[in-house]
Design a protein that fits this description.
Chains A, B: Belongs to the 3-hydroxyacyl-CoA dehydrogenase family. The structure is a homodimer of 323-residue chains. Chain A has 323 residues and is an alpha/beta fold. Chain A is built from twelve helices and eight strands. The first copy, chain A, folds into two domains: 178 residues, 3-Layer(aba) Sandwich (Rossmann fold); 90 residues, no CATH class. In chain A, helix 6 links the parallel strand 7 and strand 8. The mean pLDDT of chain A is 94.
């Protein structure tokens, strides 16, 4: 049985592939005080990575650097085996090409010590199919970030059928240890969670443009000046919990349940069974975590006001300019 | 031909129905320095409205009141005809019941002067069906707000088949005049725009809960700590424009277009025809309005940092408490 490393013992990590996503990960790891060993087949990898880190550094500084963080604490290696040597964790961020990822993950798994976990930034493939060429797929885990990975906290973690469940929970713990918001999924679902939600909205938007029902600008305005203002603090479920008034999600489902039959999107809704109804209500109660209706409303309103003020400052001609 | 009132000549408006939405509208109108005449069949309408206005007032004060704004500048009337007497605009926010709205809108249209426009807060019905009982449906327009109407700027405006197009554009101008973000739709679409997008995401979320693919809390975390952080400043379309890197939406569509065939949501995507592709690309270019890739990225990053800081303050135990 493998003993995975203690999080606090890890001082260096490898980034395999340093495009927008991999480079963003590298910047994030550096900001946490880690040293980064990078590999990328592109001939100007080092210059590109340097630019990505420099671009991300002001944001990372604003959010707070670890004490020993340095933007220069990285090396770029021509040889993959050399890049992953001695590291405590590997983040793979190669282009979204199944065969390429299969080969690369097999090579990485072979090159690192048997207690090193390898996270893949894939936004769509499941680890079961990506791990197919690896001799030992037990430490291969999806760790799906959001662009830009140095600013968006979310990481979705899910193992494949051959992944050691201990490696999956180690990966979740590790991402949390370095300050990420982690969702650990029990099983592989195409698109994971955030991309499924985002993709449903995106496809509905494409249909609307396709049918002349809305323009691109109207779609964006509908979100930025509408529900998008509520979502950074309270997600869509808790938002609807509040829409139900004092009666919460139960009232909301009983009152607006019939609208699930309305043609308000091209996506058919599931049957609102008693079980589904109860699951959604219980989930909202868990999330409210004892906060009263009044407290949730006060937090929502405070967030909307502050977010509107932030956005207005940035939109104004006197607002933030590009460096 | 009707001459609609000048916006600056309007000093009083009527709110028909003062539940959560209508009461929120009343608070908003008061904050703009208008006087409000309210009608609601509920016996404790006045006390309820007073509570709603008092609850909204701190937020409205934080966002900035008009010079002559007063939270006491309202009257509640037992008689509908009396409530709408002499006002320059009527906002109807009755419960979401078609027959009830048809009757009420017919009565309002008959009671007001022929140059007064009537906006309906309906979140789902089209004005063509809601106006069926009105003798003169020409000034009946949908003006769909988002909860809470005193904080979320979005109002979706769309007329019915019998609405005077001048009344529709007057309504859009009026909502803009009082500080709202307005989307004027060319034709009736069930769910308008924002609710279609929101509903697609909500239905996908319900399917995921129904199938045990995600919990309520995971769904909310996926949005609040993921794409939801990007959407208050840049909507889903402009977000993907940036995901395309320097190549923008064109590169994004060519690169990720095939993922429209992936089972990343239960909603089938439209065919990515050359026309659709071009419409989306052109829309993003219009929206970027000359801002460079670097400028857009800098604005996005500044917004995400500031929004994260806002949210963290509110979430922390020292953060905002309910009043």
């Amino acid at each position: 049985m493998v003993t995975y490393p203690k999080f606090e013992d890890i001082s260096s990590v490898a980034c395999v592939g340093v495009g927008t996503i991999g480079g963003g990960w590298a910047a994030y790891f550096l900001s946490r005080g880690l040293s980064v060993r990078a590999w990328d087949p592109s001939p100007d990898a080092e210059a590109k990575l340097r630019r990505l880190i420099d671009a991300a550094w002001p944001a990372l500084t604003a959010l707070g650097l670890a004490e020993n963080a340095s933007r220069d604490n990285f090396t770029v290696h021509a040889d993959l085996n050399e890049a992953v040597r001695g590291v405590g964790f590997v983040q793979e961020s190669a282009p979204e090409n199944l065969e390429l990822k299969q080969d690369l993950l097999a090579r990485i798994a072979e090159a690192v010590s048997p207690e090193v976990v390898i996270g893949s930034s894939t936004s769509g493939y499941g680890m079961t199919e990506m791990a197919q060429k690896a001799e030992d797929p037990s430490r291969l885990v999806v760790g799906h970030p959001f662009n830009p990975p140095y600013l968006i906290p979310l990481v979705e973690v899910v193992g494949g059928l051959q992944t050691d469940p201990q490696a999956t929970s180690w990966a979740s713990g590790w991402y949390e240890f370095i300050g990420k918001s982690v969702i650990t999924m029990d099983r592989e679902v195409p698109g994971f969670i955030a991309n499924r939600l985002q993709e449903a909205l995106w496809r509905e938007a494409l249909h609307m443009v396709d049918n002349g029902e809305a323009t691109v600008e109207q779609i964006d305005l509908a979100i930025t000046d509408g529900p998008g203002l509520r979502w950074p603090l309270q997600g869509p479920m808790l938002t609807f919990h509040l829409a139900g008034g004092e009666g919460g999600m139960a009232h909301m489902l009983d009152h607006f349940g019939p609208s699930l039959k309305s043609p308000w999107t091209r996506l058919d809704a599931p049957e609102l069974t008693a079980t589904l109804r109860q699951d959604v209500i219980d989930g909202c109660d868990d999330e409210a975590a004892g906060r009263s209706f009044g407290e949730l409303i006060a937090q929502r309103d405070a967030a909307i006001i502050a977010v509107r003020q932030v956005v207005e400052t940035i939109r104004s001609p006197q607002g933030v300019q590009a460096k």
